[in-house]
Amino acid sequence: MSAREFYVGYLTMPPRLKLIVRGLFAVLLGLIASDAWLIASLQPAAGDGSWADTPREYSGTLSRTPYPMLRVNTPNGLKTYLLVSDEKRGAEAALGVTPDGPVKLSGFPIARSSIGMIELAADNVAVISETPAIEEPAREVHGTATLDGEIVDSKCWLGVMRPGEGHLHKACASLCIRGGIPPMFVTRGVGDNPSVMLLTQADGSAVQPDTILPFVGDAVRLTGTIEKRGDLWVLKADLPSLTRVRN
Description:
Elements: H1 15-42, E1 50-51, E2 56-63, E3 69-74, E4 77-84, H2 92-95, E5 101-112, E6 115-120, E7 127-128, E8 139-153, H3 154-160, H4 170-178, E9 183-187, E10 196-201, E11 220-229, E12 232-237, E13 243-244
């Protein structure tokens, strides 16, 4: 009968058993590294989003329709910034009772795909300004389309999270939208339609979060009217048409 090695906790491990354990440990590390590489390689690209760590001063015209935003005149023309607060909160708490119109405020710029956002630096940060009001730009209607894409929360997608989209981001995006972060619709390159649009109801008002939360982060199909308001594209959605699609 051949002798077999076995391990007793208070004795030195037999040499052959030690080699087997080391080999199994090396295989385990290799599997972990392979899984990490595979998961990372399957993630969508993070895009060109940015989130500055230094606040800037802005002077422009505040509007809360359909979501809080600031219109600013720049050397390159009108620039529209969506406004949000810190963490997963919309801008209303920080804006307080500041009325629509000319204001000065401080915040951290967030940007991606030429879309701008400002995370307000503190609560009650906007102050009334004496500068002339900037009129809302004319609305250009670009027709009705049925589009495939994804509903995302604008703050994470624009640069706060990398990437701020997809199934892995679904829970975070849902919390952000429920907290007042404006939703956006990101298309999958359909014809000449814009790839990123602010999402509203068919009448142009803000989307009620509960109507879209089950679909956030999923591949969906949505019909709506496409509008251009200055530098901002808007999808006025027929929300009853919202359905999931297979990737």
